[in-house]
Amino acid sequence: xxxxxxxxxxxxxxxxxxxxxxxxxxxxxxxxxxxxxxxxxxxxxxxxxxxxxxxxxxxxxxxxxxxxxxxxxxxxxxxxxxxxxxxxxxxxxxxxxxxxxxxxxxxxxxxxxxxxxxxxxxxxxxxxxxxxxxxxxxxxxxxxxxxxxxxxxxxxxxxxxxxxxxxxxxxxxxxxxxxxxxxxxxxxxxxxxxxxxxxxxxxxxxxxxxxxxxxxxxxxxxxxxxxxxxxxxxxxxxxxxxxxxxxxxxxxxxxxxxxxxxxxxxxxxxxxxxxxxxxxxxxxxxxxxxxxxxxxxxxxxxxxxxxxxxxxxxxxxxxxxxxxxxxxxxxxxxxxxxxxxxxxxxxxxxxxxxxxxxxxxxxxxxxxxxxxxxxxxxxxxxxxxxxxxxxxxxxxxxxxxxxxxxxxxxxxxxxxxxxxxxxxxxxxxxxxxxxxxxxxxxx
Amino acid sequence: xxxxxxxxxxxxxxxxxxxxxxxxxxxxxxxxxxxxxxxxxxxxxxxxxxxxxxxxxxxxxxxxxxxxxxxxxxxxxxxxxxxxxxxxxxxxxxxxxxxxxxxxxxxxxxxxxxxxxxxxxxxxxxxxxxxxxxxxxxxxxxxxxxxxxxxxxxxxxxxxxxxxxxxxxxxxxxxxxxxxxxxxxxxxxxxxxxxxxxxxxxxxxxxxxxxxxxxxxxxxxxxxxxxxxxxxxxxxxxxxxxxxxxxxxxxxxxxxxxxx
Lengths: 443, 260
Known about the structure:
Chain A contains 5 helices and 40 strands.
């Protein structure tokens, strides 16, 4: 046994040595510091092209050069400092794979500069992906960022991970078309204003997009799935969140599609939240315009807590276990939404019901006092109890004129399921045989 | 056996109608996993199946007493245990056949005309109904043992059905309101194990992928049931439940037999 293990170890060692030697042998001239030398020799405005190969970090770009990696260019960094640090304005970096291997609190790419263009980078990191500090008007496009070692099946706690793209005190940046996977927060913005987050895809992270104390943020056309929460927007005014899709955020007990906390005068429109634990979670938020969203197949469609003066219009609530819950949330105006569990009456034929739809807050109040009662979620007994608790109806959140038909297009799934057919046939056969043998035959 | 009893056929007709209603609800919005539609269907099943099991089960036993066939049987060398176990197995089978017919008809219609169930949900619903009837027949055996005649059995059955299915959360919210906060959750879990309707309902919700809606309080439970061996444990608990209920019925019948 011991002999065999020793043999295996020797093999592994040999393999390791080979893997380590191979790139060094192939690109002997391109050893440590070569990229740094090329940058040092270049004049501002030059384009530096890097030949394929594995390079050792860390490098610093302190003049406005364009750095282009040919396919197969890899920068590996084991040191605690960032693999690439950019300190000059007007730099452009593209086509490079960056591996930040150090577990220290650092980042693959550090940006302390403005008007930078980062594109087509493939970042694998044990720390942050791209970090922006006091950096304005940069463009970060079409990069891929993921946690290093996730492929080999190593389980890392979410809290031990760092953010994909992390902005602090950085304004007017455009972050578009990036793909971020298995990080802490996908795109994190703090005290950063007027940034545009457009068309990114984020999965298996904690929060897909996280905004803290930002103004004028635009979040448009992003897709998030299997995150704890698709987008967490907090302490924000005048944001625009539209055309995003947040799906399948349901595995965690704190999962939401879109979480709005302390958000004011913002527009939330044309988003699709599907299959989440809670579609929209709105807390302590006011005067927001929430319209034309499609809220489907969530456990709870929309939940209001201590939120007032929000406008909720032309949203489709379809096949949620509970469409809406609201507590301590007066003066929200709900008009012309579609609620699939409500049958309205439309006498004047304007497509809107003449009777209103009221949301019973009983269950939410009950579980707020005693969370253990959450066990009764949608149990027949609880529905029975809810129908009896009809007092104080005037304080309920009400949709004054709900829509008769969904506002958006609805793809109805008419499934022809052949497995179900065969299973049904078997069931019928079995029961016929039993009934014949025990009932009919003996009489 | 049970299929010479006209009750079985009227329940079968009822269940076919009922399962077609389920199909129509499902066709409105075909969805896989835990959703508003599946939740409504679970609740409909939860209303009908326990009631059916309790009535059919308890009537079958009281009929033996009323019609005197048990006295006749007592004269034969037939053990009370075989009698109880035979009754239990037979009644469960009758109920399962009723459900097979119902689900079979609606499953076929759905598969042919579209808007049918997804196979995973369909199988889960069948399993859910089978589990429910298995457990409620166990309760029916106890009712049939205690009740002297059909009228008593009917009264007890309906009241047990009402408290287990409809009044359950009202009852618990009222009672646990008086219990110190710290004991609410343990008491709730303990009581849930006593009510087969709740036990099976929660198991199915977790299996449909809706576990996280129960909140952080039940994180460990949900994780545990969600695993593959969670199903085995669940079956074990159900079997234990049935064995205890049937055991109690057996002891009381045995006593009655010796008194006569």
